[in-house]
Write a structure and sequence with these properties.
Helices cover 31% and strands 26% of the residues. It is α/β, with parallel strands linked by helices. The chain has two domains: 129 residues, 3-Layer(aba) Sandwich (Rossmann fold), CATH 3.40.50.720; 107 residues, Dihydrodipicolinate Reductase, domain 2. α1 crosses α6 and α2 runs parallel beside α3. The two termini are 26 Å apart.
């Protein structure tokens, strides 16, 4: 499998380059950076393009790669419903009917499982909140992982017809964090951290904590390689590595 890496000189991109080079079933095709022309990535040299850039440019990158007829795996965060809609529209007009784009809020297996477990547990608790903690160089807050987890919790609670979560706070106090789909999400940016998420679930007299800690960017690489191998089997837009796991 020929894999091109967009953002190859970045912190995550450089790890992806090394992981692809070490994989026996993959060949590193092109290493592309922000100043390079993305149209050089084409089906003639690339089966899958992996984008690890920044939120401001990742949408344009994906739209360009779709027009090029290349499958895309995206690890850049900062996605919202409007951006996802643009990707779906572009795929509907893509040169290939089996064109595929995969976007992952997180590639770490522990984080994907934490999100999945949160969805199972959420209907059984009155309260749920998410705390995410990352290094201070991270550009977005809250993280895409925490936003995805909040949506997972909210959807599970809606399907179970749960009552609103108790919260006597008056007004939209900044210290209460962002509210994503009715779930409070708190972001910490602290030197010495890498990527961490804590999901707090509470009932009268009890608490359950689901926590994922990723201490090194190497923890994301098995998920990236899995997505590269699986994306071509799932035409259209797929969001979340859980879609490629046997859960």
């Amino acid at each position: 499998m020929r894999v091109s890496v967009v953002g190859a000189q970045g912190r995550m991109g450089s790890h992806v380059v090394a992981a692809v080079e070490a994989a026996e079933d993959m060949q590193l095709a092109l290493q592309v950076d922000s100043s390079d022309d993305l149209t050089q990535v084409s089906p003639e040299n690339t089966d899958v393009a992996v984008d690890f850039t920044v939120p401001d440019v990742t949408l344009d990158n994906v739209l360009t790669l779709i027009k090029q007829g290349v499958n895309v795996v995206v690890g850049t965060t900062g996605w919202n419903d409007d951006k996802l809609a643009q990707v779906r529209e572009a795929l509907a007009q893509a040169p290939r009917k089996d064109q595929a784009v995969f976007i992952a809020p997180n590639f770490a297996i522990s984080a994907v499982l934490a999100d999945y477990f949160a969805g199972i547990a959420a209907p059984y608790f009155e309260s749920a909140e998410v705390i995410e903690a990352h290094h201070p160089n991270k550009l977005d807050a809250p993280s895409g992982t925490a936003v995805h987890t909040a949506h997972t919790i909210a959807q599970a609670r809606r399907q179970a017809d749960c009552a609103p979560m108790p919260d006597a706070t008056v007004g939209n106090e900044p210290s209460r964090g962002d509210v994503v789909d009715g779930v409070h999400v708190h972001a910490v940016r602290l030197r010495g951290l890498n990527a961490h998420e804590e999901i707090l679930l509470g009932n009268p007299g009890e608490q359950m904590i689901i926590r994922s800690d990723c201490f090194d960017r190497a923890s994301f690489m098995p998920g990236v390689l899995l997505a590269c191998r699986k994306v071509g089997e799932h035409p259209g837009l797929t969001v979340g590595l859980d879609q490629f796991l046997d859960l």
